[in-house]
Amino acid sequence: MPSVDFYYRNALxxxxxxxxxxxxVRYLIMVxxxxxxxxxxxxxxxxxxxxxDVFLSFFGKRKQGIPxxxxxxxxxxxxHDLYVDERVLIPRPETxxxxxxxxxxxxxxxxxxxxxxxxxxGTGSGCIALCLKTFFPNWLVSASDVSEGxxxxxxxxxxxxxxxxxxxxxxxxxxxxEANMALDIIISNPPYVKDRESAEEMVRSNEPAGALYIxxxxxxxEKIFMDAPKVKKGSLLMVFEIDPWLVGPLEEAMEKxxxxxxxxxxxxxxxxMDRHLFVYLP
Length: 282
Hints:
By secondary structure, the protein is α/β, with parallel strands linked by helices. The chain has 2 domains: 4-72; 87-281, 3-Layer(aba) Sandwich (Rossmann fold). The chain is 41% helix and 18% strand. Strand 1 and strand 2 (80-82) form a beta hairpin. Helix 2 packs antiparallel against helix 4 (52-63) and helix 11 (219-231) runs parallel beside helix 12 (247-257).
């Protein structure tokens, strides 16, 4: 049987025509062979390829323009291997950064050892809620989404890791209001891409439009701002992933809809772009 390196090099050569790079090939081989890291593809390059049929099936789908995470149904995210399919967005590094920033600074607002109540609004794959429950196991964490398909994916991931997370169906804060829930923390990665032309071709062709595009107006954020007082337990911390173009519209929306006083802090990602919004209602 040919080696891992044989399949790797052949795929690199063939993949150039389809815009497939070495990262994608290593990822597909990693999942097909059950390796723990893409680097194992190089480390074990002289080993016999044990599952060539699985890899070739993956590679054929990738040549059709399908992202590797949808091909393999595996998306690494902060130490978790999440199940993903076309019903949910592929988790992004920007969301990992938001959770890291939140975890590092939450003690500025609350004692995280307390039994806090958190809602992940627009949970998608469940990546945010899953990590919150992993990082802060004593918290009561809920995950909501307007898409029933997304909630099925999220529940798959919660079950995989044995996390007890409350799942709610509905738009923005409506399911929390209907459940008469009082929250300490709202954390959300809403749609924030302005339009289809702003997204890469692979994203436009594969990922769910409802979780991506917001148009010219920050309506999703406004819904949360308007209803935040209805779910406010005491003080309330809201954390959002945003796109830099939204800074101005969000400043206007907060001034219009949030009760005063409030504190708003736009924070930059590792590339120096405004990517996260922390809002505190005392």
